[in-house]
Fold:
Amino acid sequence: MSAHVLGFHEIDHTRLPLVGGKGANLGELSGIDGVRVPAGFCVTTDAYRRVVAGDPAIGELVAGRSGWPWWCSAWSSPRRPASCSPPTRSPPTGG
Structure:
């Protein structure tokens, strides 16, 4: 598809760092005969990081839905806190 979007058919367990656990699992499942997975794609973690870095408000929206700190993103895991490092700048305040 592109450098920032991968179809499930392009993903397997080796792409875990690129698409995260859910994406890698969906890619693996889509490659198993007899397992029906709807056609789909994953946005890479790098693309997601770039979007959030460009507009921290997006990170805040994700945090509001997930309960994670605003700088954590979809690839973070409570079991792997090192993957969620604090930002180098503060989030925007007020309106």
